[in-house]
Amino acid sequence: MRRPPTLKTIEIFASPQGEGLRQGEPTIFVRLAGCNLRCGFCDTKTAWRGGRQWSVEAIAAEVERLRGGYPTTWVCLTGGEPLAQNVRPLVKRLHAGGFLVQIESNGTFPPDPDADWLSVSPKPPGYAVHPASRKKAREVKLVVCRPLCLDDVRAVRAAFPLTTPVILQPESNAGWSMKKAVRLLEDAGRAGIDGLRLSVQLHKIYGFR
């Protein structure tokens, strides 16, 4: 008998989306384990390893249980790097339950073709992404980390369609990073780089997860 699909999972919880264009919308998060990049500035290092295997049905059941007390149509698969695992059966199962699915990815893996919203956050060094991610992304989040420079911003902006906004997101809302984000936005404007936006991590301001 074929074994049911499973995903190594860290946690499942409900919270307003704190990042990107969907910021503030009620969302149920499924945080999956494992990451292929493991950046030094990552704020979820607990997702790099560990977790336990959950069946797709068990994940969907927990999501539906949470929806009972936290009405929403959105589920966000995050990590770690969620696309390091085969999330397609989960995306299909969540769609069958009436949910819309967002995936937050570093963009190095091929995107899931059925996801309703792909957030891509390219990482240093190189900020490389899979070619299919460039077409599928609804938004690009650039963490304003120490190494990020105007040339990186220019290269990332050029890699995605101009209709896909590139969001400058301060590293953990740190003061130095927010000042750098403003400076990069202003320098980009003077350099003729369009389609950038400033942001913050809303959940850290409100004290959400």
Put simply, the count of helices is 6
| Structural shape | globular
Which strand-content bin applies to the residues?
15-25%
Backbone structural class = alpha/beta
Helix amount: 25-40%
Strand order of the largest sheet: 3-1-2-4-5-6-7-8-9
Average residue-wise pLDDT: 96
Rg over C-alpha atoms, rounded to the nearest angstrom? 17 Å
Task: List low-pLDDT spans.
Answer: none
Question: What key phrases describe this protein's structure?
Answer:
209 residues; alpha/beta; nine-stranded mixed beta sheet; 6 helices; 29% helix
What does this structure look like?
It is a single chain. By secondary structure, this protein is of the alpha/beta class. The chain is built from six helices and nine strands, in the order βββαβαββαβαβαβα. It has a nine-stranded mixed beta sheet. α4 links the parallel β7 (139-144) and β8. α1 packs across α2. The chain is globular, with a radius of gyration of 17 Å. The model has no long low-confidence stretch (mean pLDDT 96).
